[in-house]
Each structure stands twice: as C-alpha cells, then as structure tokens.
C-alpha cells in the first residue's frame, strides 16, 4: 500500500459555500479523522480506503500518519468495497470512505455480496447525508438508510452531531461485522467545555422527558427537533425527545415502552420517510399492536434540489418551526 497523491474533491458545506480543501483543513475541525487516527494508533489491524475524497472525508490524517495502511482505489467505489472485503477476509478491519450516495447506491451489489453476506469486518463511512449538500439530487443521499438497513448483518449508525462522532467511531470499531456510519463533517468547532456524548449500539438515547408526545430523531434532525421542543414548551405542549443514533438494530423495547406512555410518536429524519427511521419505527409499533399514533417527518417520497441545508430543511418540513407545527397539529387531530 502506498501513499496516494490523487487530487481531492472538496465537499460543499451545509451553508452552501464551496470551501477549497486546503482552507477547509485550516478552519474546520476534523473530529472523525482524529477519532479514526486515535484508533489506528491503538489497533494495527485497521486499514483505510478512500475513493478520491481524502480531505473531504478527513482521512488525510490517516494517510499521512500511516501511508502503508492507506489505499486510494480512485473513483471506483465498487472496486473499493470489493477490496475492503478482501482485506477484511485477511484479518484486517477495513474502513471505506466516500460520500453517502457513492458508498451505498452505486456499489450496492458489492456491499451486499462482498461485505454483508460474508459478514466481513468492514466499516462503510458515508459523508454528506440527506439534504446536507447544495450539489443536488446526484449527491443527496435520501435513500441510503433504507438500502443499508435492508441488508442482513448490517449495522446502521448515525451520530447526532460532532460531539457524538468519537463514540460512534469507537462503537463501530468494537462491533465485529459490517457497519454503515452516516455523518456530516463539523462546520465549526464545538464550544469549549462541550462534553463528548456516549453511544451504545442498539440503544436509543432519551434526551428529554415529556408527557404529551415523543420525538424520535436521528442525525442532523436531532438539532432542529431539540429547538422544536423549546417552541412547543412556549405553547404549553410538553414533548420528550430521543436520539435514535442506531437505526439498525433498533431499540424495540424502548419504542414499545414509550408507545405505552404517549399517544403520539413523531419521527424526524434527514432522509426519505420511505424505508428510513420512520418506517423502522412504524414496523415496531405495528407488530407491537400499539395504539399510539405515528407521525413521520422527513423527505416525502420525492427528490430535492440543489440549495442550502437550512433552505431544504425548511422546504421539506425539517426546520424547528415546521416540526413544532406538524406535531401540534397531529396532537390536535387525536381524539381525547
């Protein structure tokens, strides 16, 4: 394995501005890259692969520290996944990096046959989830969770934000088998003193109690859902919030318990409502015979368009005011 000299393609941030790779490295913290590098220092079996997006996936830190454990297959995602499966079969733990759409939709057959089916110890790390990029439909991953959670043996993790990234990386590394890790790079440094958040695979994280309803959010949807709670409190509505950082395996026990305590469960996801978190929760509640109503908020079975993340979140009902309004309306529609 040799150090790559391939040109990097920098990503487009959620704010809608193009940030060249060199300046991005200088101003944007790299919590994922630092977490992976720390693990690599502890575990010599970890190898890193990147599909010509090294700076954009923060894997330049790994490349520079461990050039003999870094592989650049180029813009050939299917080959990269197949190579990762082979490396894993030889006793290594392979970490694959690219944008979410190119990590899932493009090499899906290779992921299924060369990683999930043989249960290889491969971690597929996707950046630019959902509506987080201005690059439009070709780069907006609104179906990746649906694809990956449909695969047997696949674990799907989506940290709520930068503070949960180190725990997500370590949890993925400790899990023996395929993992899809879905995330966005931190747009800015965390405030001083911000604690790192824990993450336990298969356990939904309860962030706030509430008597009237419960919001179950994942990934980038956790922040606007948290803001929606504050808006709803000003309207006299007491809502709880949970972070579903693991979408597969889903914490079914938690959901059944919460459905017995609330008349309304609301899922919020930066993804299509078809096949993602909302569908997963619906399956659990239906099989449990729950009487709780379910409201799914997310991209409603349509493609988006190229625009900033704040604009797209507002347009597709994922901003804090629109989450609060939808929840309030759903509560009003429920017969006392």
Commentary on this structure:
The protein has 336 residues and is of the alpha/beta class. The chain has 2 domains: 21-183, 3-Layer(aba) Sandwich (Rossmann fold); 205-333, 3-Layer(aba) Sandwich (Rossmann fold). 37% of the residues lie in helices and 18% in strands. The chain has helices at 21-27, 31-42, 60-65, 77-89, 100-104, 108-116, 144-149, 165-174, 222-234, 252-261, 277-288, 309-315, 320-333; strands spanning 46-50, 70-71, 93-99, 122-127, 155-157, 179-183, 205-208, 213-217, 239-243, 246-248, 264-272, 293-299. The strands form 2 sheets. Strands 2-1-3-4-6-5-10 form a 7-stranded mixed beta sheet, sandwiched between helices. A 5-stranded mixed beta sheet has the order 7-9-8-11-12, with helices on both faces. Strand 8, helix 9 (222-234) and strand 9 form a beta-alpha-beta unit. Helix 2 (31-42) packs parallel to helix 8 (165-174), helix 4 (77-89) packs parallel to helix 6 (108-116) and helix 10 crosses helix 11 (277-288). The longest helix has 14 residues, at 320-333. The chain is globular, with a radius of gyration of 19 Å. Residues 1-26 have low confidence and may be disordered.
List its salient traits.
336 residues, alpha/beta, Rossmann fold, 2 domains, seven-stranded mixed β-sheet, five-stranded mixed β-sheet, 13 helices, disordered N terminus
């Amino acid at each position: 394995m040799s150090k790559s000299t391939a040109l990097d393609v920098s990503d487009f941030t959620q704010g809608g501005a193009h940030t060249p790779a060199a300046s991005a490295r200088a101003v944007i913290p790299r919590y994922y890259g630092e977490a992976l590098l720390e693990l690599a220092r502890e575990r010599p079996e970890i190898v890193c692969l990147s599909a010509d997006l090294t700076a954009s996936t923060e894997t330049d830190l790994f490349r520079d520290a461990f050039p003999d454990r870094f592989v650049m297959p180029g813009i050939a995602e299917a080959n990269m996944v197949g190579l990762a499966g082979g490396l894993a079969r030889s006793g290594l733990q392979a970490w694959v990096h690219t944008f979410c759409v190119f990590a899932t939709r493009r090499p899906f057959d290779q992921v299924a046959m060369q990683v999930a089916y043989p249960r290889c110890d491969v971690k597929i790390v996707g950046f630019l989830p959902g509506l987080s990029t201005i690059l439009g439909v070709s780069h907006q991953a609104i179906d990746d969770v649906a694809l990956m959670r449909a695969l047997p043996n696949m674990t799907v993790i989506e940290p709520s934000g930068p503070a949960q990234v180190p725990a997500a990386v370590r949890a993925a590394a400790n899990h023996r088998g395929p993992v899809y890790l879905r995330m966005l790079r931190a747009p800015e440094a965390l405030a001083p003193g911000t604690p790192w958040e824990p993450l336990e695979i298969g356990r939904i994280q309860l962030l706030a109690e509430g008597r009237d309803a419960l919001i179950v959010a994942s990934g980038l949807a956790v922040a606007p859902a948290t803001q929606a709670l504050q808006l709803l409190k000003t309207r006299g509505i007491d809502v709880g919030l949970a972070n579903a950082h693991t979408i597969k395996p889903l914490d079914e026990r938690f959901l059944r318990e919460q459905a017995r305590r609330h008349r309304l469960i609301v899922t919020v996801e930066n993804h299509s409502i078809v096949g993602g978190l909302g569908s997963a929760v619906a399956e659990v509640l239906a099989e449990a015979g729950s009487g709780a109503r379910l409201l799914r908020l997310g991209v409603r079975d349509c493609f988006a368009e190229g625009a900033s993340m704040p604009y797209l979140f507002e347009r597709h009902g994922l901003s804090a005011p629109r989450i609060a309004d939808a929840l309030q309306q759903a509560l009003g529609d429920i017969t006392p």
